[in-house]
Amino acid sequence: MEENNNLTAERSLEIITKQIAQSRKTVSKDVGLSLFISGLCIIGVAIVTIICALLTGNMAFHLLYVLIPVLVIGIDRYVKRNKPKVPDSIIGTMVDKTWQTFGIFVLTFFLLSIPFNKLMLHDALVVDNMQVYFQNRINPVRIILLMMGMAVTINGYILKSKWMVWCGIIGGIGGFFWEAFCVTQTLLAWSRLPVEYYSAAQTIAPNLIMIVFTFIGLTLPGWMLKRQK
Question: Are 182 and 11 in contact (CB under 8 A)?
């Protein structure tokens, strides 16, 4: 009797383990597609922002980034409209909550950074010292890249995907330190560009950085996940 109970317990554990593995695989493909779509949306918005800002000289086009959640949700639902719904599971819930938290923090941070930077610019103009502005302004790009990397890395651990973990680490930490140490500005200074091209380069650079690290942190791991067998 005791032996039968042990066998039953072992069989139950085996079934549960298989169900978790299958759930993780199913969620991984679904998440991979969502990451791939998110990466393409961000890259697309970045390209449109570059073109519009260069043609008009208006930096307000960077507000197009606010549309990203709407684009991602809309396109994601459209692409998955004929696909079977992923069954509810603890793994799927953990992944969803991670991205919901990421979206709330990023959107709030981005929207709050706009009035803060305007206030810093106003104060700098009042005291006629732009150094005050450059020292105190918020650079949303590096923080957003860092938070994106954290979210991707956490998802990688949940889904047991080494590719996702490393892409998140490289994309997030790499993007953060690239911006924190002003690598783009240093390269521009070394390039000795003519004055008429310098403004355009400053417009292109942050969006180009967003494109590169978004590809590493979102598009690439998403592509790898969604094509797994």
Answer: no
